[in-house]
Design brief:
Elements lengths: L12 H9 L9 E8 L10 E8 L1 H12 L4 E8 L5 E2 L3 E9 L2 H19 E7 L1
Antiparallel strand pairs: 1-5, 2-4, 2-6, 3-5
Helix pairs in contact: 2-3
């Protein structure tokens, strides 16, 4: 199965879930958990935002995905990040989907993967009013 590295298709959550369900070991899964990050109208500091642009460190993303996919009980992780395009308020920024055996494994893996992507993989430029 082709592992999504955040650079290529699929571009919707439904496509990502379908890709995970096509995994040859999908019968081991007991949970699929998804994150859909969107552009919000204000920065963390409360400033009005008109949009943002994301840059991705693909090498670091691949390392994180390889490590997180090897965690106990994890079947697959898919990520899609919209990069190098100006996104506006309400646009999807990132989809992250984790499938695994039980919720404790899946929730922890989604949380850890998301936090690593946000702190080590992506950088953003916000545009303000």
């Amino acid at each position: 199965m082709d592992k999504n590295d955040g650079k290529n298709e699929p571009e919707t959550l439904a496509q990502m879930v379908a890709q995970i369900k096509a995994h040859p070991d999908f019968s081991r899964a007991g949970m699929i958990l998804a994150h859909n990050g969107i552009v919000r109208a204000t920065s963390r500091e409360g400033r009005p935002v008109t949009g943002l642009e994301i840059q991705v460190d693909h090498r670091r993303l691949a390392e994180i995905l390889q490590k997180e996919r090897s965690r106990p009980g994890i079947l697959d992780i898919q990520v899609h990040i919209r990069e190098n395009t100006k996104l506006t308020v309400g646009d999807d920024v990132m989809f992250l989907v984790v499938a695994g055996d039980i919720r404790e494994n899946v929730i922890a893996t989604l949380t850890d993967t998301l936090n690593q992507i946000k702190s080590e993989v992506t950088s953003k430029t916000q545009f303000f009013q």
